[in-house]
Amino acid sequence: MPTSPTESSRSTASGRSPEHVAIIMDGNGRWAQARGLPRFEGHRRGVEAVRGAVRSAIEFGIPYLTIYSFSSENWSRPAEEVAMLMGLLKRYIRNDLAELHGNDVRVRVIGQRVGLAPDIAALLDEAETLTRANHGLNLIVAFNYGARQEIVEAARRLAREATQGRLDPARIDIDMFASRLGAPDVPDPDLIIRTSGEQRLSNFLLWQAAYAELVFLPIHWPDFDRAAFESALAQFAGRERRFGGAGGAAPVKSVS
Ligand code: IPE
Ligand code: IPE
Ligand code: MG
């Protein structure tokens, strides 16, 4: 595994760089607790780490970055913490949207939009609309997101089309199902990174993660910096992806 930034940049640039990196940003609360600070301080520092991750993704030339910022299960947290997280999201968009736009970032949001506070829904719409024609980094924000819900929604759409006579259920295949998910034109993640040491997906991209490489980092999200990102990319570069094939130098996707 490469150990220096130069070596890892070289190896990730040599055809082993992920097209889509998705991050489960975990450990804000424990980062704060370990320092005797309120959980909120961890979340606040977590926003700084988001800024750094976006900068690094641009620098590394990664086309797609998905960040898990609030899960459909996170509503079960104490009301004050939920309110703080909502406030931080609003502040992040208000403060950073112009800069993201200036950096040619295209912002997309996946997750349930119905039921969100109107001001939050409006900000999410604004971020997507303003940056729609950008061609730099695709930043996909998973907000009020749950993979099971996303899959159920896709099934519901297909069922509706079938009952309306617009679709023959016998024609439903993997590609058609995937096309009804939240961001169908976004390629599946090649690499999923989770900070905090937890080793689980927590309802994140369950469909899309089918062949993702998983990297679990033993640091909390506020400590995720350029070097941590590089170390995850270096781990990815050292993995052999087989997609069910027999292995070898190149992934074997089909036989001829
Ligand atoms: C991640 O940090 C942020 C969100 C889930 C919104 P946590 O708040 O989950 O921090 P820990 O896991 O409790 O330390
Ligand atoms: C996953 O982290 C959700 C986000 C990072 C937004 P959680 O902290 O909610 O996950 P669990 O509860 O530890 O599985
Ligand atoms: Mg957590």
Q: Top keywords for this entry?
A:
alpha/beta; 8 helices; Undecaprenyl pyrophosphate synthetase; globular; binds magnesium ion; binds 3-methylbut-3-enyl trihydrogen diphosphate; 6-stranded parallel sheet; disordered N terminus; 256 residues
How would you sum up this structure, described in words?
The protein is α/β, with parallel strands linked by helices and 256 residues long. It has eight helices and six strands; from the N terminus they run H-E-H-H-E-H-E-H-E-H-H-E-E-H. The protein has a single domain (16-237), classed as Undecaprenyl pyrophosphate synthetase, CATH 3.40.1180. It has a six-stranded parallel beta sheet with strand order 3-4-2-1-5-6, with helices on both faces. Helix 5 (118-131) links the parallel strand 3 and strand 4. It is globular, with a radius of gyration of 19 Å. The two termini are 33 Å apart. The model is unreliable at 1-15 (pLDDT under 50). The structure holds 3-methylbut-3-enyl trihydrogen diphosphate (2 copies) and magnesium ion (MG). One 3-methylbut-3-enyl trihydrogen diphosphate binds next to helix 2. One 3-methylbut-3-enyl trihydrogen diphosphate binds next to strand 2.
What is the overall pLDDT average? Answer: 93
Please identify the top-level CATH class: Alpha Beta
Roughly what percent helix? 40-55%
CATH architecture: 3-Layer(aba) Sandwich
Structural class: alpha/beta
Low-pLDDT sequence parts: 1-15
Ligands, deduplicated: 3-methylbut-3-enyl trihydrogen diphosphate, magnesium ion
Strands of the largest sheet, in order across it? 3-4-2-1-5-6
**Strand and helix order:** HEHHEHEHEHHEEH
Quantity of strands, as a count: 6
Task: Indicate how many domains the architecture comprises.
Answer: 1
CATH homologous superfamily placement: Decaprenyl diphosphate synthase-like
